[in-house]
Write the structure tokens for this entry.
Amino acid sequence: MPARNTHVWWRQRFAEPAAGMAQRIVVVTDVDGTLLEPGTRSLPDERAALDFLAARGIPLVINSSKTRAEIERLHQTLQMLTPFISENGAALFLPHASFPFVPERARPAVGCEVIEFGRRYHEVVDALRLTCREMEVEVVGFAELSIEDVARELGVPLVEAQLAKLREYTELFRIVDEKDAMRSRLFKALHRRGLRCWRTGTHHLVTATPDRAESLRTLRAIWKQAWGDHVMIGLGDSEDDVAWLRHVDVAIIVQSRRTGVAARAFSKLPTAHVTRRPGRQGWSEAIFEFVGGLLTRRAQNHPTSGGGNRTDPRSDDRPP
């Protein structure tokens, strides 16, 4: 029999265990282009959406191409205590005591347990180097770069570059004098070695994780074993996110500032909802509309259920 979910997922002083319908909701999100946007400052409605989740005890799970170190820094900033998925599904990290048991396949790590789905970083880097030599393709890989070089490549501060270099399962690289035919040949050769590649901005990411969505399916199975049936809401903004958005109950595509991205993602997942606004504004809008909507419908159908006013997504939760 699954236990009652009384875990506190946030560090804010007002955070409490979830009550009522909020106990059954899990929000999973990508961060780049949704919760984070380069060169922008924190928005009032974004903070309000995060506080909305924290006040109701609803967990926010990050599912990103970022490294463990990058996500842990974001966890500290947002004061979260939730599981997370790093490097495009390569590993699922479970902070200690997240669940009432230690899941199968989980091994101890600093401050958490981890379930791994990909090969280790040095194996991926070695396979990339060997393939590039055989194909006579010149690339710039992050394994060879200094922190200063990474900062210039990504256009980020040194502290962010240092966290981005702490890779455990995937490699970022740039093809020198890239041509479409050259990229296609390289990707096919890497695929023959059991690696997958895709573009991330001006760079490419290579991984040995065979299925981006396996980590999310594993998290869902653990969650159900611990606390029973739940409603998982997923937010992403790219075609690559579709791979895992297929496995949530409510899929939301956040409008991208890049032309045509949301339309291509929607064409691959026509059951998804698409936000009206792009980036963090669209992300915040979706939290109030879809999470708040679930709580409102539950409160209307069960007006005497537990949780009191905390199940009512009041209009004054939004910024003026």
About this structure: The radius of gyration is 20 Å. The domain at 121-207 is CATH 3.30.980.20 (Threonyl-tRNA Synthetase; Chain A, domain 2).
